[in-house]
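Take a look at the protein record below and tell me what you see:
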Amino acid sequence: MVMFLRSLLFCSLAGSALGFGIPHDPTHLADVASHGAMTVAGAAGKFANTYKDSLVEHPLLTKMATGGLLASAGDAIAQSRTEDPYDKPRALSFMAFDMCYRALQHVAFPIIVHQCHGQFLGPLVTQLPTDYAAAMEQTLVSQLG
């Protein structure tokens, strides 16, 4: 759990340094909680709005930071299930791979969506609407490439 929180703090600090608009002052959340200035729902809503704004302003960097955070958190959880000491190089490799993969997806997905409109699977599955055939094509191409 400690490693997850460290990963969360790291990504928050990195996001702030990259200009994502995420508060980088570690006391900020404590101040909010202790003064009761925001409810949990209000804080979640504010975070969601900040995240959406970041996706609009910095889509690639936001996707990469999100991927890095999720990969780090997932690996921290997986590593916490073993008796072995925390493997930092492993965690960093998961983070780096996921960040690179998100960059690839950022470039590839618009091309896939533009090219796959159901024209290949549509004639094979005539019972389904074209939108479904397009979604199936896009999924197959993105997963099997």
Summary: The chain is about 75% helix and 0% strand. The first helix runs from residue 2 to 17.
